[in-house]
Amino acid sequence: MRKVQSSQSCCCSDAARASRQGRSCRHPSPACVPATCQVVNLGDRFGSSVVSMSLHLKIRTLLDIAENCTENWTRQDGSSHHARLQGGAVAGTAVGAVALAIFLAVAACYMFRRSALRQAMCIGRPIAVSLTDLKVQPCKNEEAFMQIDPDQKATVKSISVQPAGADLPNERVPFVRHVLRWLEAFSNMYRVLFGICLGFNVTFLALAATNTVPYAKRQKAAFALGNIMVSCIVRNEIFMYGVYWLIVKTFSRWPPLWVRAFWTSFLLHIGGCHSGLAISSLMWIIYVLVDLATHSAFTQTGVIVIVSVLGALILITAAAAFPLIRFYHHNTFEVLHRFSGWTALSAVWVFEILASNWDSNTKRFKFAGSHFIHHQDFWFLVVTTYLIIQPWLFVRRVEVLETSVPSSKAILMKFKGFVPLGCLSRISRKPLLEWHAFGCISDAVSEGQDKDIHHLLITPLGDFTRELASNPPTHVYTRNFKFVGLPYCVTMFRSGVLVATGSGLGIWMSILLQGPPDYHLIWVGRDLTNTYGPVMMDLLSRIDPARVHLYDTLHDGRPDSLALTIQLVRQIRAEVVLVTSNPRGTEHLVNGCRAAGITAFGPIFDS
């Protein structure tokens, strides 16, 4: 490192001139800095009268000396080291601050959830962890309640669900508690991850717009493409298989329960990262468009048009994934999300080719491969394109060995191939238009031909599934690489209760057949034997009867599933409850278990 040479005469003249103008010296040296403002060591700072020195003057002096050193170094080197150092320092500080803020936000949100649940358990009036409030109410199903062990009745009877907003008569609820309930309902993991990704990008977008971080301003297109790339990565099934495998292997059983619950929730809600990054890419594209329009004299008109089209396509892609559209118009969601996304990818390629080869000085295109491949945007685009193409490399047309329709409420399809624990399968008749995911049922201990097969248990609800029942196919399209989901996380917990209604049983069957022995099943359905057929009942017969709890609503009436679940959890000391039912039933059971202090998970709209 070069030594910094200082001129005392120059600095002293600057000091005299600065004093006449009523300001501090711009280039101070030790000779012209007042004695009361000179930097002292730590011992002097606490051991002498310098303690009374003004903190403002000390900081100002240190900053001026640092600026003097940087400017001298820049003048001697004749280069832009100062600008680079300044940009690097600001960028490093911003990244560090954002990373710290992200860590604190995640920790605060999760610890808030734990403390809120503990408080609810202590005061006896549980607050909701989602969009409904929970309250003390008697059990609605007395027959089911009478079957519960007497020692457990007092505990189970106090749990039920009531619509949000109801409170005990003549009881005044503090405003703070209302705020806490609202925050608790809003701050689920999906929204936390969405907010982190969005907040990170908003921070850098503001730094770029104010030119605080010149790198972000220069590489705004790279930020847009980078967000698109990472949003595709967290949706890539092979990448997510690796993430699931790593987290499950790392945190399996040994950490505290709340740590394992945190990572399970993270995996279940990782779609929040996908949504947050996609919205962030739209913001960066808008910023790119505004910047191009501002400097339109130096920009080719076609580039501006392409960026405008790209922004519109990303907006359509994001709007199609809105939960209401996705839930009530799933086919529309799939078509718009897929084809507008592919068109947007094509528009990005056109934009990158045009923008990389446009010479703003001559206002002409100079097409050269060297201009293209040396941009990081190009490599972001290559990775994104690969991530879009890769899932289609595993698509195969496979034979359906057998399709049985035991009733109007169940379809059982049989395929070749053993499927490991925790994996799910997608099938389709029109692979370009729609895909549907179902839980796979494979028996690891069966002998003979049953060893190398798997079943899909399906409820005929939508157009696709009803057509499977009315017109069973001989072949369907599937992906050889099976993706993983919530069932894959069961090995992180020592024991658990699996709750299913109707055909929701299909997602948990492989856990009972292949997984840990300390998982029990509660299955609620109507006329189980006739509705789901002999094949499903035969698979259930292979499981230890002590682990299977069946409730036939045709003969026994509808049980209080929440009370039964809590009673079974406390009886076997289960660590987790996993629920699959219709959306309202899943929310009811998950919220009720969480309010009782039990870790519970169920599929979400993004699953």
Automatic annotation (TrEMBL):
The answer on whether this UniProt entry bears the keyword Transmembrane helix reads yes
User: Per its UniProt record, what InterPro entries does this chain match?
Assistant: Adenylate-forming_domain (IPR052979)
Could you tell me the keywords of this UniProt record? Membrane, Transmembrane, Transmembrane helix
Q: Which domain of life is it from?
A: Eukaryota
TM segment ranges = 89-112, 190-209, 221-246, 266-290, 302-327, 339-358, 378-395
Keyword Transmembrane part of the UniProt annotation: yes
Name of the protein: Integral membrane protein TmpA
